[in-house]
Amino acid sequence: MGESIAEGTLSKWLKKVGDQVKRDEPMFEISTDKVDAEIPAPSTGVLAEVLVTEGQTVPVQTVVARLETDVTAAVAAPAAAPSAPAAAAAPAGQGAAVGGGAGGPPRKESTPQPPAPSHPIAASAPISAHTNGDSLEERLRTKSSPLVRRMAAEHGVEITALQGSGIAGRVTKKDLLQFLESGAKAPPHAPTGGLSAPSHGLPLPEPWPGDVVEPMSKMRQLISDHMVASRHTSAHVSSFFEVDFTRIARIRATRRAEFEKATGEKLTYLPFIIKAVVDGLKAHPVLNASVRGSEIIYRKQINVGVAVALDWGLIVPVIKGADNLSLTGLTRSLNDLANRARAKRLDPREVQDGTFTITNPGVFGSLIGTPIINQPQVGILCLGAIEKRPKVLTGPDGEDTIAIRTCSYLSLSFDHRIVDGADADKFMAFVKKSLENFPDAVL
Fold first, then answer.
1. Are residues 289 and 303 in contact, defined by beta-carbon separation less than 8 angstroms?
2. Which tens digits make up the pLDDT trace of 28-42?
3. What class is the 7-114 domain?
């Protein structure tokens, strides 16, 4: 599931023991700190044993189930003990592991229990020794369970400063409770960490009679953490522009049938907006940058993330190399990513490395919004509802008339640490002009 993934939560089994599965057929769903996804079967067979139950969070390379590829053996032979080695009758694709991809080379199976801290990580783990400057052990230690991270945040404890007893020094709930009960001074908590501290010294709310209390999903916890961290990191400022989409509305009306027949894709307003934004980022590169301490990283790649609302949360798949795509290419990429996001078939790499984000709450009727920046980016564009409005227009003779125009409000949330108001408004003015004068031939 990508080099940066250290663990996954098995959120739902789509098959039960005894079910026949085909190669590449979804077997179970996982939630990671990057994406929710359905995991396909590595080979055809019968689900002989389930080793990890729904709701369990386990490290990558944990064997979560066993497939019997010999159907007669699956019927005749009893289920292997959880600690037994791989069945000899299933030489190919017999184990399904968190982090594994369908159709890959056979992997050595291990016991389902997480190894003791002194045991080395399996050599077949697809995680490099160093990613973003941190070792695997350091990343695993910071990937403690959501409960431990929340407890640490509420008590102002920095998890990475503690020595845990879990895998690779991972801090467990028992470790944290022992530390708190010892009365030791809590290490200072990093101000820009990815953990939200909802109490801030205030008492937590208590449920009243008749209330329903349910735990946050993995995705909701991560959204909460990321949003709070972003507000603590960036100096958020917003700017608002009204854009006349009448010309684009006419282009869509006259070219929609031709476009859909040629491409098989629906022509919406969003690809036009992405194209204008990409051109704007080329002209104003500070909006396509990131902050690293006292340095500014100007990204050469333009990777546009587009927020997709799901029934169970929010995800931002990324159109990589958006500056190299035509309007048709942007439409295809956008529709493909959005459809696979809703079907839980995104690869974690498809939600990484965005350099700018667009969100479109206008589809729900919202007129305007001030979205939170998607770290480590410095800008996010919000599209309000596109609707017909009466506008005052000045004709060639200088006379004012009232006309019906198709309009929308666009807002830009930007990081004032490196983006000044003048830069943000110049970018927005560029996008506005591009949309209001969009060339018909670009299709």
1. no
2. 988 876 677 888 898
3. mainly beta
